[in-house]
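Record 1 of the preview.
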Amino acid sequence: MKKQLFFLLFLSMSNTFCMGDDREWLPHALEAYELKSLRICAIVLNEGVPYIVIKDPHGYAHRAFRGDMMGKNYGAIREIDEKGVKLEELIETKEGDWISRHVELKYEKNEKECSIRMPAIACKEPAVQSKQKLQR
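->
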């Protein structure tokens, strides 16, 4: 019970939706990857709402804000600045207790590593299908 309360308190501190039941938890796409496999490609500090652009191991870009979760250890983004991102992870000990750990991902500008793949968007296909329906 103590472990569950600590976990719920940790999650309630983030801006992420949580009703306290793992079955209702909607994980962020970045929670599927280890932190060391993610690369910060850009930091946008616009009008008080900073966010980061992160490249996953498959080459796709994700946008993350303060409070979003990333990494496999329930990492919540606590601070974004021009140097990088500060996260707070929740780690389960061997005894079954949960401890908080602070982690920092530094922004290292490397254009070669930050070439981003964009998902294919099929814009013409629905228009072709609708024309075929009109001809019938």
